[in-house]
Design brief:
This protein is mostly helical. Helices cover 67% and strands 0% of the residues. The radius of gyration is 15 Å and the shape is elongated. It has a domain of 50 residues. The termini are far apart.
Length: 94
């Protein structure tokens, strides 16, 4: 029997880090490359059953940061730098 991939956000801290690295890749695009290479070749690689869920969590983080940045910049006129410099610097400091 084929096992289904796990549901979103059910992997504890791993799910948190996938989302966080996705959000940080908005400022540091090299994280995207490193993450995709790791998912493709690390562990069981693309044959691991949860790889699609991990990548989806990552891209949800990236898309969330892109959306928040451009929405805030357009509607609220919050400087774009808040999302490209300030918030990522705070997260990296933690």
């Amino acid at each position: 029997m084929i096992e289904m991939a796990r549901k979103l956000w059910t992997d504890g801290w791993n799910s948190f880090w996938h989302f966080t690295f996705g959000a940080l890749s908005f400022k540091l695009p090299i994280i995207l490359l490193i993450f995709l290479v790791y998912q493709a070749f690390g562990g069981d690689g693309v044959y691991e059953r949860n790889v699609t869920t991990d990548i989806l969590e990552f891209f949800i983080g990236l898309i969330s940061m892109i959306t928040a940045s451009y929405t805030a910049n357009h509607f609220i006129e919050i400087p774009h730098e808040l999302f490209t410099e300030i918030i990522p610097d705070i997260i990296m400091a933690i």
